[in-house]
Amino acid sequence: MIDSMLDGFKQILSKRQEIPPDQHEAFDIRIEPIQRQTQAIINAIMTLIDKPHPPTSPTATKKNSNIFDDCFIPEDERDEYGGIASSASKKNHGGGQYEQMLVEQTQTSAQKHVGDLQFKLERAKEDAEVTKKLAQDIEDLNQVMEDLAALVHSQHDIVDSIEEHVELAAYKVESGNRELKKALANKNAQVPLAAAAVGATAVGGPVGFVAGSAALGIMAGVGGAIAGIFGGRLLKKQAQEATKISTNEESNQS
Amino acid sequence: MPPTAPPKSCTATITRLDQALLFKILDALEGTKTIVWDRFLMTEFNSTVSYQLLKEHNVVSHVCPVINPIVKKTDHILYIIPPYLHSTKELIESHLKKIPEIDRRKHRIYYVPEVSYVHREELISAIPWIDKHIYNLPMRWFPTDHSQFISMNLPTLPPVMLIYEDWNELYKCAKALRQLETQMEYPPKIIYKGKWSTTVAQILEQLRKTPSEEHVIEAPNVDEIIIIDRWLDLATPLMMQQTFSGVADEMYGIDIQSKIKFETENFYKGSKIPKSLQEKPQFDFYLNDEIYPELCDSHMMDVSGKIQYFVRECKEEELKYKSVESVAQISECVNSLPRVIKKREATTSYLQMTTLFMHDMSQAERLDYRKCEEEILENKFEDKIIPYIETCILNAEPLLKILRLISLQSQICNGLKLATLQAYRKSIVQGYGIEVLSWFLRLEMAGLIRCSDKSEKMSTYLPVNFTDLKKRFKLFSTEPPQVGDIARFYNGYVPLLIRILEEGEQADFMNWDFIEPSKNVPLKKKLQKDRLLFIVGGITRAEMGIIKERFPDMKYCCTTATITGNQLIEGLRE
User: Fold this and answer.
1) Which of chain B's residues have a Cβ under 8 Å away from the Cβ of A151?
2) pTM of the entire predicted model
3) Which residues contact B329 (CB under 8 A, 6 or more apart)?
């Protein structure tokens, strides 16, 4: 590709011989930008083909702002058009030497670029070492953070007094008992009502049916409900007594 | 919570001994254990073993006091109780009577330090099967906040000895000393001074002939045991202590676990209360940090200077943290951070504490008390009535401080005039009621309040002639004491007890009574002898500081209790 580009360019230069000498200057002025662009393209192609850029070099990513930067020659070597600042293009406008100079220039810049890349490789190696050290430091820092976390945790004094544990256990037992009592009270609260309902249906219904009178049935029902309430209360009391004894026995059990 | 003691210190040895005794019992029983504690013993044991340590030895549940029910089911139940009749009765009623037939083997009763015939009989008569389940747990010594001192925590010795003349207390002392010397390679020479000490020495001699106590640990040897009576110097504990630990003990009380109880609001007056304490009206401050040993024996006036030094140290350490550059340095800093944080917190707390003490000391009533005390020490009023004391009685101020001043006056002037004593007694009875008369009379019986008239002689303990001894021993320094002078601990007064010990030491205790050990002791020529000091009847924290400073060769310093003047007088109330 480079050869075909150079051949094309040489053909354009050979046309220079064919035009009258007074128009040489105007020809050069027109050709010069083309020449520089061609050189820049050749440089870029050379870089891509001969020394591909290390894909994951930290230096590269650090130094260059984008991945294509390596395709171009360094800024200080560029001329105003972005091509190589060629002394030949400024001084010598001779047609035969021009081609040779161009080839030489291209070769020198390629060598220079190889040197650059070697330097970059060394830098990359150094950077890798630094990165490794950094990773180690991060690990250490992680350890430090863990130590700090443990430190913060240990700020809360471990209760090592027997007394505090005794008090805690006693409190827990007491509150547990309280909860149990509450639960029992709730459970037993419905016993009288249930007993009243049972009493009313069990006594009022049959009595009314036998007597054949609704009034008598209702009265018997009310009487049954009252008896049920009292009976229920008695049952509740008995249940409470029973649970009281059983909890006492449990707590005293050793 | 056990206080941190430097290795090889006296308290470290005793902690080791106590732990060995307790863990031997616990480890002998396989499975989980519940301990039913007597409240006082629980606190006492907590000074040598922590909750975590007990947990490591499979103690999963604690019950306290004895009357509380056992909640958790464990493989063994251990009752740790003192040899008092009420404790035994409580144990029988609350637990032993309810034990079912199949459950008997699990229960064991341990009396600390040992069971007496009376308790064993009481137990067997109520629960016959318990006979084989009664044991002794001979834990007799406990650490104090001073690493050189250990205590029997037996403050009842003076009242029991002086009022009831019960020699059982002295037997306990002799047994305790025997336990200590059994841990050594050979029995030391016993040197003693005083009525009680003579009895202790004689009982100890007898105990040496009987089967010895159990050898549990290897303890450092001593060449001589020096036993001395507290009652040879009664004046010193009645004076206000001036050292940091002394003042703390006098004002707030340092308990057997080496902690002080403070009111949170009072302690953090004018400064922000830490989050953890915001909901607690009171909190315990444990004197087990690295700063306390440096401060405890300092005169109150020197404390702020020492705290300033610690503050400077903390600041320097903080600056060091700011200049760290590498991760390795950060890591090192983080590792040392807990110590630094604790130190900083402790420094802040001590600063707060010092401010609190100084504030309390500068209260008008305390200043008046101090002035009166100084006048008594100067013997300004001799054996006559002191107007300040009279005014205090008229104002119905706390009787304790009045009795302390009267006791101090009667000690300094070698006994009050009969008329003075009667006048004091009359005004106190008129002001505080007839029930306080028994207290006053008990103090007379104990020899704390003395009368120069022979008709009023009630004490069984022969009093010392303080006026003569004051001149002989140069107890009061004429010039203001400098830092490092032992007279500074009591503002220019050197305790009589210290002077007696100094005199004895100068003559290598040759002029004291002694008992040579019956066994052949390997003779070692030493430039300096290692000694064990035992003070029968208690010692103040300021005196502990002086002994530490003045007698560094005392490897063990033992006492029946750490006392203050108030505790001594209060102990004779009932």
Assistant:
1) 334, 337-338, 341
2) 0.74
3) none
